[in-house]
Amino acid sequence: MSEGPSVSPREREGPQVSVREGRRPEVAVGAVVVRDDELLMVRRGRDPGAGRWSLPGGRVEAGETLATAVEREVREETGLAVRCGAFVGFVERIGPGHHYVILDFAAAPVGANTAPDPGDDAEAVRWVPRAEVRSLALVDGLEEFLRRHGVLGDDGKAEG
Predict the structure, then answer these.
(1) Rg (Cα) of the chain, in Å, rounded?
(2) HEC readout, 139-160
(3) Distances (CA, A) of 133 to 14, 41, 111, 112, 156
C-alpha cells in the first residue's frame, strides 16, 4: 500500500466536462477489502459506471466519520461487516452532473459471515481472486489505482 496519496495528472486535473453550476464536489468513500488473496468487488447497479465492477463504497452522510461511512457502505452493498483500516489513496471522478472525491480505505471482514449478498445499489457482489480482477469490466481507472497502491501487481496479479 502507498504511504500517502498519489494522484496522476489526469486525476488531479480531471476531464474537461461540464458540471452543473453551483454543484459542489461530494465526498465518498471506498473499501479495499482483501481476504485470502481475493478482493471484495461490487457490480454497480446505477450510474456512474452501471454494470461495471468497482470497490464497495458511496457517499459520506452529514455528521458521519469516514470510518463509519466505509463500514456502513460495505454493509449496505454487500451485507458484510468490516472494520475500517488505513487510508489507501484517493481519486476524483468528474462527469456530466457529478464530481466525487473518493477516499479509499483498507478494510477487514469481521465476524463469521463472509458470504456477500448484494444490496443497496449493487447489482452483484463477490470475492474476486486478485489475479482475475483485470479480466472484469472495471470502472474507469480502477485497475490503475489498485496497481499504484499495491493491491495488484503490474501484471494485474496480487502483489506480494
Answers:
(1) 15
(2) CCCHHHHHHHCCCECCCCCECC
(3) 25, 9, 25, 25, 7
Task: Tell me the whole-structure pTM to 2 decimals.
Answer: 0.83
Pairing outcome for strands 57-59 and 53-54: unpaired
**Can you tell me whether residue 131 is helix, strand or coil?**
helix
Q: Which residue has the cell 480502477?
A: 142
| Torsion 140-99-126-33 (CA) sign | positive
Cα–Cα distances in angstroms (integers) from residue 29 to residues 37, 57, 69, 90, 134, in the given order: 22, 5, 7, 9, 22
CA distance 117 to 99: 28
**pLDDT tens per residue, range 114-133:** 899 988 788 999 999 999 99
